[in-house]
Design goal:
Keywords: Aminopeptidase, Hydrolase, Metal-binding, Metalloprotease, Protease, Zinc. This is M18 family aminopeptidase. It comes from Marinobacter persicus. Belongs to the peptidase M18 family. The structure is a single chain. The chain has about 425 residues and is α/β, with parallel strands linked by helices. It has two domains: about 5-85 and about 235-425, 3-Layer(aba) Sandwich (Aminopeptidase), CATH 3.40.630; about 90-220, Roll (Aminopeptidase i, Domain 2), CATH 2.30.250. It has eleven helices and 20 strands. The strands form three sheets. Strands 1-2-3-13-4-14-18-16-17 form a nine-stranded mixed beta sheet, sandwiched between helices. It has a six-stranded antiparallel beta sheet with strand order 8-7-10-5-6-9. The longest helix has 16 residues, at about 235-250. The radius of gyration is 22 Å and the shape is globular. The mean pLDDT is about 95.
């Protein structure tokens, strides 16, 4: 895969993955096409050497692995981790709001959303819907309206003269998107609209909507940006970019060594769920793969937690340590925090630098300012749960947690090349 092909395919992946459920479904399709076999957690497993497998939990988290030609007890497992969720606005269970003939939906803020960029954007809606079908069966289905169906209009500056200096966003009152205008006598429910969408998109007649997990997203697709197209702008780069890089690395690796990709949901809200990184999902899969030898396998293994990093912003350079300001298009960023907000240690960082240097590829390091707080990733959670040596790394980006984020077009491809080499490497511990 070449640099241009990588970015074009990344754009297709991002546009096809507006929610964690869609992202997992997209990865499932690509794994199926590559000959991977789906495993069901309810069944007995009979794993063969040299085969690819994947497991899905809740439809929003996925673990894919190649069993390799060597026993994981002897070779260890090369693991890459990422997360499928992104900050967004999720629809409430009883969302209908009618004011002056405008039909709006109440929303709940999911994760640490940068709220101001959500105003005046063309918004669409997607997620998972659970229905009762004509035969009385409970079924899950994915929906994606795709076209712009809502907007959150800004208040005009004439009505808020301090908008450019002192405007705040109230998550309860300022964010309900406007979906349509309706007469005063209208009794349309959101469930009615969902049944229509399920019928038209999925060909499924729903007698009743039993539940849903739906989020608004930016209807504008990913695109190359810049006079020389040095940048790629998109929603959900944090962290679908890492999901894509990890998937491509697993698919393109030789398959000789045992290798695994885990993409967890719920990282943006703490990872404490059945399918989150603080939950048992990865441990359960490793126990079924490795049996009583799991502890020995972990001792020979390594995890690379891939989650984007803050690139140094030319308008806000004072927000970075002067010796640790990652530059877009100058390589992936090794993330270091001695208070264990990142799981990187000198050993795991050294292995990454060594592989990257062997390939002649750039890399950077970041430490946050000592007077500022530090975010975290699934890295420390996975390291603490499994006891596996872990590295935190990420592609540098701008506008993290905005509705539209920005990366350099070189860095994702660079990280892919290193992770592919990592998955092919005979010694990682």
């Amino acid at each position: 895969m070449e640099h241009t092909d990588f970015n074009n395919d990344l754009i297709e992946f991002l546009d096809g993955s507006p929610t964690p459920w869609h992202a997992v479904n997209t990865m499932k399709s690509r794994l199926d096409a590559a000959g991977f076999q789906q495993l069901d957690e309810r069944d007995n497993w009979s794993l063969e050497q040299g085969q690819g497998y994947y497991v899905i939990r809740n439809g929003s988290s996925i673990i894919a692995f190649r069993s390799g030609k060597k026993s994981p007890v002897e070779a260890g497992i090369r693991m890459v981790g990422a997360h499928t969720d992104s900050p967004c606005l999720k629809v409430k269970p009883n969302p209908e709001i009618r004011r002056k003939g405008f039909f709006q939906l109440g929303v709940e803020v999911y994760g640490g959303v940068l709220l101001n960029p959500w105003f005046d954007r063309d918004l669409s809606l997607a997620g998972r819907v659970t229905v009762l079908d004509e035969e009385g069966q409970v079924k899950d289905t994915l929906v994606n309206f795709k076209k712009p169906v809502a907007i959150i209009p800004s208040l005009a500056i004439h009505l808020d003269r301090e908008a450019n200096s002192n405007r705040t966003v109230n998550a309860q009152t300022d964010l309900p998107p406007v979906m349509m205008q309706v007469p005063e006598t209208d009794t349309t429910s959101f469930a009615d609209l969902l049944k229509q969408q399920v019928a038209s998109e999925c060909g499924l007649t729903a007698e009743k909507v039993l539940g849903y997990e739906l989020g608004f997203y930016d209807a504008q697709g990913a695109s190359l940006v810049g006079l020389r197209e040095e940048f790629l702008a998109s929603a959900r780069l944090d962290n679908l970019l890492s999901c894509y890089i990890g998937l491509q690395s697993l698919l393109k690796a030789s398959g000789d060594e045992p290798a695994l990709l885990v993409c967890n949901d719920h990282e943006e809200v703490g990872s404490m769920s059945a399918e989150g990184a603080q939950g048992p999902f990865l441990g359960n899969v490793l126990e079924r793969w490795c049996g009583d030898d799991k502890a020995r396998v972990i001792a020979r293994s390594m995890m690379i937690s891939a989650d984007n990093a803050h690139g140094i912003h030319p308008n806000y350079m004072d927000r970075h340590d002067e010796n640790h300001g990652p530059i877009l298009n100058q390589g992936p960023v090794i993330k270091i925090n001695h208070n264990q907000r990142y799981a990187t240690n000198s050993r795991s960082a050294a292995l990454y630098r060594h592989i990257s240097d062997e390939l002649g590829l750039p890399h950077q390091s970041v430490v946050v300012r000592s007077d500022m707080g530090c975010g975290s990733t699934i890295g420390p959670l996975t390291a603490g749960t499994l006891g596996v040596t872990t590295l935190d790394i990420g592609v540098p980006q701008f506008a993290m947690h905005s509705i539209r984020e920005l990366i350099g077009t070189q860095d994702g491809f660079t990280l892919y090349r290193v992770l592919k080499a990592f998955m092919e490497r005979p010694d990682v511990a």
